[in-house]
Fold this sequence. Notes:
Chain A is an alpha+beta fold. Chain A has 12 helices and 19 strands. Chain A has helices spanning about 20-30, 45-55, 60-80, 90-105, 125-130, 160-165, 180-190, 200-210, 260-270, 340-355, 400-410, 415, and strands spanning about 5-15, 35, 80-85, 110-115, 150-155, 170-175, 240, 250, 280, 285, 290-295, 300-305, 305-310, 315-335, 365-370, 390-400, 420-425, 435-445, 450-455. In chain A, strand 7 and strand 8 form a beta hairpin. Chain B has one domain. Helix content of chain B is about 25%, strand content about 30%.
Amino acid sequence: MSAKEKVLIANGQGFWGDSILGPIRLIREGPIDYLTLDYLAEVTLSIMQKLRARDPKKGYATDFVAMVDRMLPDIMEKNVRIVANAGGVNPRACVDALMEVAKKHGIRGLKIAVVEGDDILGDLDALMKSGEEFKNMDSDVPLAGVRDRVSSANVYLGAFPIAEALDLGAQIVLTGRGTDPGLVLGPLIHEFAWGLKDYDLLAAGTIAGHIVECGAQCTGGNYTDWRKVPDLATVGYPIIEARPDGTFAVTKHEGTGGLVNCETVSHQLVYEMGDPANYLTPDCIADFTSLQMEQAGDNRVEISGIKGMPPTEFFKVSMSYGDGWKSTGQLTISGPDALEKAKLASEIVWKRLAYDGFEYSEDERLVEFVGANVCHDGIAIPNAGEPSEVVLRMGVKGPDRQKVNRFGAELVPLVTSGPPGVTGFAGGRPKATEIIGFWPALMKKDQIKTEVTLFES
Amino acid sequence: MVKVALSRIAAARSGDKGEGSNVGVIARSPAAYSFIKEHLTEAVVQQHMLAVNPGGVQRFCADNLMALNFLLDNSLGGGGSASLKTDAQGKTHGLALLRLELEVPEEVLEATPKP
Lengths: 457, 115
């Protein structure tokens, strides 16, 4: 395959729940070579494991299949290649669903590759026997204590298996858990034949991926100076225009809303950042303090100079486990005296629960008066004044499901047995839902085998 | 010296990072960056965000981006799915930090475009 001089890689889905209009407009409104899509949050894989346990045909991102169903003729006509982590914990079931979609549209010869090997839930005990402790990266506690409550365990794979899948000719590459920037780095490795030791180039592709991985967050979404952003309603999702030497531009389709400048890109560069000089991935360590950035036209930022270092010998593992129960509910309380009445109402709830034998410690309960500075608690707000109404939001949590559930039954009665002006109780009694705890750990890379398989319609 | 909110000379974005959050602060000019690098210390940020973050604060610098990155290590009420807070992901912590009032020299303000 002859190497191109540049390649256009877009991201149309920044997280599980992002708008379907992102990918639709990227495909429709201008040229792109690759479309990357992220459907996995940390708790998503746990939910998918539960869905698959009930039905072996489930456990992947159904939103992705719906998007392909709407856009497949355009995807084929424009020859857009797609890389998505929509496979979840059941990528082969996702392939089956996509093949059904292809059949419906009368499309033959659609090539779909799956990357597998990230899901280690079934191998956990064997891995622990062989010496992996899966110590929690934050608390340093070994996994053994919560092992029986683990509901998902996935390794963050790197970008090379994605490149391998593209080398096989796949139009669509489905992965499970992998790094988010890897969705962009994979196509770059494939197109430009970057090697395992090209650390500066791998770091450049990683930072390109980091910039676009949250969709519109680098094109004007969630931007401090929001009044300067034109037409967020039609916001263009980001596109990387990458070159073989590791330099790239960040841009978006012409005619779309939003804003790409050094400030909007900087906002995303610092997002979810730890030490900017040491951004760890399975493929390299990227140094965000090495990059140079320059405005190079309307809605176009050029990035160069990126340095990288060899990766560590570990994969990061993302595990989830049942960590108790929680319940939250809310009521709206109008003025006059909204805040004073809301405070009284919250005390009434705790007293009635205590009368019935249910007391919750300070750590197990929360009261918020939404509208009276909840988000910026403790920070003086100039000219705040008395709120004309507040939302009383209360919650409890703990290991005892029944005790957590009992709380919800004392919130709604405030409508008739609390102070006046209590409303907004639609939705009924709050119920206990399970808390999915997140357990980050490291494991040796040589314990993991990845596999790439190609399917054709 | 003029008393202004940090938002006059910097922008910010925040999000969840394990059981805490990170706040990236981006200066609006080189003069503003020099000023915040000297004055927006871990101790200042910790004091301002105390009610939101009863934990510690760690700072990193990225001179090339004119940015400071702060890690607030206990700002999410338990973090992720265990938090009962409205802002369980720290999405609003950047704007909370930008409310900080500082005494800023006039020459820094003159060298820094208004938002």
